[in-house]
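Field reference: sequence -> structure
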Amino acid sequence: MTDTWASTLGRVAFINCDPLYHEIPDEWNVLSAPPSWLTGHVLRRDCILAPIPAADYAKHQKELVLLPDIGIGSQGEVGSVLLFGAVPISSMKTIALPSDSATSVALLKHLLAKRGHTMSYVSTGPDYDSMMAMADGALLIGDRALEAAREFPEMVQLDLGEAWMQEEGLPMIFGVFVARADTPSSLVRQAHAVLLSNLVQFENDDEKREHVIRWSMEKSGLTYERLDKYYGEVFNRLNQHHLDGLFKFLSEACNMEDEPRFAWSADTVV
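Structure field:
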């Protein structure tokens, strides 16, 4: 591989995709960034593929294609996309939103609108203390949400993955893997195969799963037991049922009218 971007895999700077990126072969570079930043990285050809907020795919559907089989989602409780507050949602008037993910923001607004809650929102950096100081509620995602839930479990007012499941009866796909639509399919398939191979090992090899969990422990400070549970809450393998949830979110919460485009048909969806 001569072009650096073609051998660079974008990844979310959270542990929710560690099963895909554990011990990536040396010939591949990894670009780690917040979810919304990765959208720009893919568009600028800083990396060949990356997981981005599903809501960002809706915005850039003309320029990007979805990749099959892999993503970041939950079948109900997700544990890392949480609304915090000292009062119930019905008593909230303002919510601080994180600047690092479009999907969680779109999902929260969609859920609260369907429940008839009128809310004022302010966008800010994803910091629990500062967000709670400026608003009645704070939306956090990823490792920050896990850490805040560990410190302040009584402040968790809503798990957005669980709320979506209750509302729609479908899984919630927060992150989708994408590539530029004009990238040669052969290059994207090579990169995709590396991640899918890692996921297959994680799913079928207990030793691999343990290594991933211990790697995540080093980065997050969470216990083995919590991470073992977390990797049952969040998943990276997508099947048709999960895609039904994704398509529902893109249509209902993102007002996407066009049919989502895939780089190729799924080879290994189960």
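Note: The first strand starts at residue 8 and ends at 12.
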